[in-house]
C-alpha cells in the first residue's frame, strides 16, 4: 500500500496487502510539522473524582491539625515577668506547671470564711502586715472566688489583695496578716471591742451598775480592732466591763480595774475583717 503525505497532519490511510481494497484509518492527530504533535484525551470517572476530592479534604484537615499543634507548642504567659521554675520534662506528663514571677507588683492570697464573705467587696481597702516589716502596707481587694472550698464542716473563699507599693522589696511566699475594711461609720455609740462577747448566737456586753455587773444583749454594727459600734442595747454614759490582760485578776477590792467608761461619737470607726492570714506572691 502507499502512505499518505501527512504534511497537513490530518491523517493517512493505507491499503491492506491482501488487495481486498479494504481501508482502515490510523489514529488522528493535529499538528503543523511533518512529524505531527498528537493530543490525547481521557475520560475520568465519577468514582475517581470522588476519591481525588477525598484526598484533598484529608490534606486540608491535616493542615488545620498541623497549625493547631504549632500554636499549642508555643506557651504564652498571662503576665510579663521572669520564668522562675519549669515543672515539665520532655516526654513527661503535660499536667506540670511553669512559674513566672511578674514584675507588676505584689499580691497576697488569703481565705475568708463563709460567714464573712458577703462583707468582702472588690476595691475595699486592706491593711497588710508582712512578716519582717513593722509598718502595715496598704492594698485593696482585687479578686473574690465564686467557688468555696470545704474542709470538714467549714467553708472558705479565696480572696486576693493587691498591694499599692511597688518600690519596697518583698519576697515571694512570705507570710502576712490582713485587716480588710468592710465598713466605716462616724458619730455612733461604741464600746471597746473586747467588751463584746458572742454567746448562744447573740452579742452581749457586761455593764457595771451600782457596783454590780449585769449582762446586756446588744446589736452591733461595724466592728473594728479597737472599737465596736453598738446600735441598740446600751446608752451613752454606761460603764462596761472588759478584761485587761496587764492587770491582776479582778476581785471585790479592785473592780475599778475592770471598768471603762462608754463613750459615743467615735469618728471614723472602721469595721475590719481582721485576723486573716495570707501568703505573699509577686503578681502581674
Please describe what this structure looks like.
By secondary structure, the protein is mostly beta strands. The protein is 11% helix and 44% strand. The chain has 2 helices and 19 strands. It has helices spanning 46-72, 114-117, and strands spanning 13-15, 23-25, 81-86, 98-102, 105-113, 125-130, 137-144, 149-151, 154-163, 175-185, 188-192, 196-199, 202-209, 212-223, 227-232, 239-241, 259-261, 263-266, 269-283. Strands 11, 12, 13, 14, 15, 16, 17 and 18 form an 8-stranded antiparallel β-sheet that branches. The longest helix has 27 residues, at 46-72. The relative contact order is 0.14.
Secondary structure elements and their pairing?
Blueprint: E1 13-15, E2 23-25, H1 46-72, E3 81-86, E4 98-102, E5 105-113, H2 114-117, E6 125-130, E7 137-144, E8 149-151, E9 154-163, E10 175-185, E11 188-192, E12 196-199, E13 202-209, E14 212-223, E15 227-232, E16 239-241, E17 259-261, E18 263-266, E19 269-283
Antiparallel strand pairs: 1-2, 3-4, 5-9, 5-19, 6-7, 6-10, 7-9, 8-9, 10-19, 11-15, 11-18, 12-13, 13-14, 13-16, 14-15, 16-17
Amino acid at each position: 500500500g502507499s502512505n499518505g503525505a501527512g504534511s497537513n497532519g490530518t491523517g493517512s490511510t493505507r491499503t491492506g496487502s491482501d488487495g481486498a481494497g479494504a481501508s482502515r484509518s490510523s489514529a488522528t492527530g493535529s499538528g503543523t510539522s511533518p512529524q505531527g504533535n498528537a493530543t490525547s484525551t481521557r475520560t475520568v470517572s465519577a468514582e475517581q473524582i470522588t476519591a481525588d476530592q477525598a484526598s484533598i479534604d484529608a490534606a486540608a484537615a491535616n493542615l488545620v491539625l498541623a497549625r493547631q499543634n504549632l500554636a499549642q507548642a508555643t506557651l504564652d504567659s498571662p503576665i510579663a515577668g521572669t520564668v522562675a521554675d519549669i515543672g515539665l520534662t520532655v516526654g513527661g506528663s503535660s499536667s506540670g506547671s511553669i512559674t513566672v514571677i511578674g514584675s507588676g507588683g505584689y499580691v497576697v492570697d488569703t481565705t475568708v470564711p463563709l460567714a464573712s464573705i458577703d462583707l468582702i467587696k472588690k476595691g475595699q481597702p486592706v491593711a497588710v502586715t508582712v512578716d519582717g516589716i513593722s509598718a502595715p502596707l496598704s492594698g485593696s481587694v482585687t479578686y473574690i472566688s465564686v467557688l468555696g472550698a470545704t474542709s470538714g464542716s467549714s467553708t472558705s473563699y479565696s480572696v486576693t489583695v493587691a498591694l499599692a507599693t511597688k518600690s519596697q522589696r518583698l519576697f515571694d511566699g512570705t507570710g502576712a496578716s490582713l485587716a480588710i475594711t468592710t465598713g466605716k461609720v462616724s458619730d455612733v455609740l461604741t464600746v471597746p471591742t473586747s467588751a463584746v462577747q458572742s454567746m448562744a448566737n447573740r452579742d452581749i456586753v457586761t455593764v457595771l451598775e451600782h457596783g454590780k455587773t449585769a449582762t446586756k444583749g446588744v446589736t452591733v454594727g461595724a466592728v473594728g480592732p479597737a472599737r465596736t459600734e453598738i446600735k441598740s442595747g446600751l446608752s451613752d454614759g454606761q460603764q462596761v466591763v472588759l478584761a485587761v490582760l496587764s492587770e491582776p485578776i479582778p476581785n471585790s477590792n479592785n473592780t475599778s480595774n475592770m471598768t471603762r467608761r462608754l463613750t459615743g461619737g467615735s469618728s471614723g470607726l472602721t469595721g475590719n475583717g481582721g485576723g486573716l492570714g495570707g501568703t505573699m506572691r509577686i503578681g502581674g
